[in-house]
Amino acid sequence: xxFNADEIASVLQQEIEQYDxxxxxxxxxxxxxxxDGIARVYGLSGVMAGEMVRFAxxxxxxxxxxxxxxVGVIILGDYLAINEGEEVRSTGELLSVPVxxxxxxxxxxxxxxxxxxxxxxxxxxxxxVETMAPGVAERQPVREPMQTGIKAIDxxxxxxxxxxxxxxxxxxxxxxAIGIDAIINQKNSGxxxxxxxxxxxxxxxxxxxxxxxxxxxxDYTTVIMAGASDPAPLQYVxxxxxxxxAEFFMYKGEHALIVYDDLSKQAVAYRQxxxxxxxxxxxxxxxxxxxxxxxxxxxxxxxxxxxxxGGSLTSLPIIETLEGEVSAYIPTxxxxxxxxxxxxxxxxxxxxxxxxMNAGISVSRVGGAAQIPAMKKxxxxxxxxxxxxxxxxxxxxxxxxxxxxxxxxxxRGYRMIELLKQGQYQPMDVTDxxxxxxxxxxxHLDKIPRERVAEWxxxxxxxxxxxxxxxxxKIETTKKLDDDTAAALExxxxxFQKQFAGKKEAATAKV
Amino acid sequence: xxDFDEEQFSAAIQGAEIDPAAHQISTVYARALLAAxxxxxxxxxxxxxxxxxxxxxxxxxxxxxxxxASGMISSEEKAAMVDRxxxxxxxxxxxxxxxxxxxxxxxxxxKAIYFAFSDLLDQLRGRxxxxxxxxxPLSDDQAQxxxxxxxxxxxxxxxxxxxxxxxxxxxxxxxxxxxVYDGSVSTQLERIRSQMIHRSVHEIQRRRDRFGTPAGN
Lengths: 511, 217
Prior knowledge:
The structure holds two protein chains of two kinds. By secondary structure, chain A is α/β, with parallel strands linked by helices.
């Protein structure tokens, strides 16, 4: 880039001329001790709880504990460069992060500093990291769907805009994949996405960013990252910072989606801070206010009233369980705060069912209000049917003779399980989901061999796209499945069944 | 120059002052001592004696300090020792105070108690301790002038503690309690520097964005 030296000189001169010397008034204290991400400071007698303080080397801190003779500060940055006896000054401000369009498409740390090497974030708009959640009068019930593009979720545990749906499961069960697919599926929907990575390996986050970029999702996504090697205070603050960035769009009347990956690591970081600050430990050594730590965060997700613009913030918190233990402290806390949970199980995952969602204990407390009418119609009793099928399947393994009705219910169940399998990074359009699930629940797949269900579905959707696009566009525009469309769809399926049978014969003939 | 001496002295025992536990204990003793001396009307004399004992005895013979702080010697013995050493040489109030402190096994907090006592007395008399830092040593005239100015602003009697820090380049920094009023050139230079960097960076980025896609993508 070429620049004009004279221009710079004149700008500098202007700066100097315009500089008015004000006396710098500050309240100071002295560092008494520094430990893992925390410092105790003597002085700072007028500091407020949650106020930002600045250390001599420029690192920021947050007044966390106000005690009689000292102030406990959490250090948001490199605590190794802070020495005992150094000056600490209060700033009179609360911690805030840059918000707005300037952060979209960026990878930032919890303080809003860029990590992606794409230059500074130029914006004058900032929002405090901790804000009060909207109250009762400022909200309205969730009513619009937030399509995740995952058949199993959109059909059985639909998520609405403004909802908080927990994704819970053991390690390596595809929790992050659901969040990422949901983000990828927001393309062209105008929903701004935020992915908060807490305590994860930097390599994992790099992979996620790469995947988002490859699927064109970084154009509307911000990644907020506090890695495993970042100090605990940053991991603790990260979800609040991400929420502040997302809230900005909600209060502007737009829609936002935020994925917290994952909140159990944040709870661990908070536990570390609290123990270092000598707050009394409670169950599993977590401090007493760890519930509040999560509830005040998740309460900020909301569907705002029309008077406030009707914006929404949907959140997908992720919690990692150990050995499927959902009754541990943090999982029960977050389950009770959220509006439902998607429970992922390792045995299903290894049996090839991906997403490995357990239909029986996964729920969405918003339910049908968050589905388009067509989906509501085709997927109505699917969740309960599948749960009943799982029971029946366990029973059938005893090897007894089954009557015809039971056998047919088993067959239907196996086909539905096959149909609900979906690869990673392949979110589907909601209309396609309706078509697939319609075919499955109405029994059109009962005669298809289990291993060919995926192929059938793929060919069927291509068939509808290419030859029966009027059915598809009707559902897409009206979002309903009326009797006429259903009849046309039945006919189309019958036609396709013949084609598919022909293809099958051709294939066997070739072999 | 007692002021300057005290400054050095306080720097040497800073550790004692900012230990929160010591602070708490010493405030209790200091408040009791102040109440006693005020009743007798001898606060200033006791303060002088206290300072003299710390400066001329305890700092000069550190092992006396160690003995007073030691747990190996019983409180009674320490109290008797203090009695033999100080009785008759200092005012009865102060000598009694020393006996009480050592008798309760708080001998090692003497320095902290001194500072708490001096702070409490200042508060009572409407005096405020002001730390003045300058790049070059202040002349007495200048100090008088500053004190006069501060008297008007604070509506209290300023007690100047002078400090020299060539790193300030020029200007004055006042510290009153936990608040710092910084009129130093070094701070202003630092501020103008960060302001310039900040604005230039934004200017450069804004111009770059005009040609590229926004948000740096």
